[in-house]
Amino acid sequence: MATEILASGSQAPDFTILSDSGEEVTLSKLRGKNIVLYFYPKDDTPGCTTEACDFRDHLAQLSALGAVVLGVSPDSVKSHAKFKAKFDLPFALLADEKNEVAEAYGAWREKSMYGKAYMGIVRSTFLIDAHGVVRQVWDNVKVHAKVKDQTIRHVDVVREALEAL
User: Fold this and answer.
1) Closest among 120, 94, 119, 137 to 6, alpha carbons compared
2) Quick one: average pLDDT of 90-95?
3) Could you give all domains of the chain from N- to C-terminal order, each with its CATH number?
4) Considering 25, 35, 37, 48, which one is annotated as catalytic?
5) How many whole angstroms separate alpha carbon 139 and alpha carbon 53?
6) Those residues with Cβ within 8 angstroms of residue 23's Cβ, 6 or more apart along the chain or in another chain
7) Given this model, what pLDDT does residue 61 score?
8) How far, in whole angstroms, is CA 134 from its chain's centroid?
9) 46-56 pLDDT, tens per residue?
10) Is 48 a catalytic residue?
11) Which string of b and e fits 124-160 if b means at least 16 CB within 10 Å?
């Protein structure tokens, strides 16, 4: 079990898992495109919904930079399909029900709430280049962070990293 997040410069671990449509998605079959692979804890929760909707609202910009957005959580295909329909999400949500992909990337780690330790998804995003190399890693993502009275949106930081590729 991975306890550390995958490092920038690493080869992105390949995977094949089901999407919200029930179709298999294989990372290596997307070579030639930049991938924004983001891990989130749970469908239809406030922070996860904000993050998904931010990616939805900026998908045209990200796509213009050659990126494919993929969201990953431990939720089921059925849960993903419902979440996707409810918020009109135009990208695939991947069902990592056994947390194997999250473990491979180091997004499945020990967390703590009210002093109780448990295993769960640490909100993380990986920018994978067209050759399958992890170019940027954001760990313990804050979807909207306040810095000196200014809100920094995670999606904007990801876009800027894509522009720099």
Assistant:
1) 137
2) 98
3) 16-164 (3.40.30.10)
4) 48
5) 19
6) none
7) 95
8) 13
9) 989 999 999 99
10) yes
11) bbbbbbeebebbbbbeebebeeeeeeeeebbbeebbe
